Amino acid sequence: IISVYICPTKNQKEKMKKYLLMGLIAAGLFTACQNSGTTTDENKNVYGVAIDSTVVPMLVAEMKDALDTMPKMDATVTGKVTSVCQKEGCWLKLDAGNNETLFMNWDHKFTVPKDIAGKTVIATGYAYHDTTSIEQLKEYAKDDNKSQAAIDSITQPKIEVKFLATGLVIK
After folding, report:
1. Mean pLDDT in consecutive groups of 10 residues from the start of the chain, 171 residues
2. pTM to 2 decimals?
3. 138 φ, ψ (degrees, to nearest 5)
4. What are the residue ranges of helices labelled H in 44-153?
5. 120: exposed, middle or buried (C-beta count within 10 Å: 0-12, 13-18, 19+)?
6. CA quadruple 98, 63, 45, 35: dihedral positive or negative?
7. pLDDT digits over 67-104, tens only?
8. SS3 state of residue 82
9. What whole-number distance in Å separates Cα of residue 122 and Cα of residue 50?
């Protein structure tokens, strides 16, 4: 077996140094920007993307009224949690007044604690009109630990306002 070693030229050595330096800088930046996994009082109730603290959130009822004139809208809303998915913490409902709720989820990008019913949240994302199928309504009812009689009583799809959150803060 014959091995051949080719010496890099001066220009190639400079390029290799430059790429090595860029790689080390990039690795350092990625390491510095990673979440250390520790929780501080400041961020322990923040899920998903950070919410701009300068934005004044709308009440759920105000957002629903504003959405009456458009198919969807970006919004930051606040409201009291009435129920949470007890299976995974993957959705919640906010009180919208008049015995109505706002269904909110986040496409499994994060989960929230299952014990936050009664707490106030602020969420950012977008609201839209949607039809929820009978099958999906029954699945939500199961996730919410509803009785079999309550699940069986679901016989019609529901047209409602929903909210896809990108970030959420529990107050």
Report:
1. 57 62 52 36 79 92 89 94 91 91 90 95 94 92 90 93 94 91
2. 0.66
3. -65, -40
4. 60-67, 134-143, 148-152
5. middle
6. positive
7. 888 889 999 999 999 999 888 889 999 999 888 899 99
8. strand
9. 11
